[in-house]
Amino acid sequence: MGGRRALLIGIDNYSVPNELKGCVDDVNMLRKALEFNGDGSQNFEIEELLNVPSSRTAMGQIEMLFANDLDVALLYFSGHGNINSTGSEICFPKDMDSGGYYAGLQMSSIMGVVNRSNAKNKIIILDCCHAGYFGMHSIDIESSDLRPGVSILSACKGSEKALISPVSGHSVFTEALCMALGGAAADYLGNITIGSLYSYIDCFFTASEQRPVFKTNATEFIPIKRQTPKIPLSVINEITALFVSDIDEISLDPSFEETNCENLIPVLKEPRANAVNVATMKKLQQLVKIGFVEPVGTDYMYYAAMDSKSCHLTELGKYYWHLVKKCPIREFTNKKLT
After folding, report:
1. Is residue 53 a part of any domain in this protein?
2. Taking the model in full, what pTM does it have?
């Protein structure tokens, strides 16, 4: 079947005094960040469940999401989380009695559905109090194990509450998540993975604040979203043509500098600019822009050329040199890297 689908659940209308104000807005904000890639292509088919009253309704939609043989199935929840004598749960308005006690949807029940799913990649993102208990191993509950292809990103540890921004009213975690999806967590190829999302969000919080939790049983990090790379992938792929080895240096001279020509500067340096070297220089400068290449003996590529110095790969550049050497990087589709 294939495809990428997401179910986003947000609940505000719990009974007083447990009502929330930002969870529906969290879903709307996340949808905008997740639905399309940076180039405007479709990323996820998204279904929203806003202020869904009961856990039975929600569980039916969760089962439908994970019943499909998808490339990626993603579940997001923003609302109340609770712990009691039977374990941890996500909570729904009709599952709460007049005394404010919950009898919600057990996280272990959701984990059982996820683990039985044939979807290739199963991603759960929980923004609620005590979310870190999701996927916690219990010797008595087989479904608590993380089966292959399952990744969980939680707003806080099991013992913690999820914070709300006093300024925006949004969840602090979901605000960070959407900034990361907006491009802050993209790598040099434009890929945003569950691993890079966690890395970004982890740095967003201090040690004294809520601590996000990341659990996974994945053999590869597939892109959750694709942003436009900072430089064309074709230039990155040329890194092994520009540099014969990862320790190679390219000798430069004034012929690499585009401005070293009669109609731009009155005093020329020999050799004068030529089209082939100028084209090479433009590629090198793009690689300098993302930290893959640096001039030797000076701070700027202009002076490296005009003073006949050289440039070489940085440690980061060497890493990508080896990646390209193994397999050229190809363009992204909304299903997978091909």
Report:
1. yes
2. 0.85
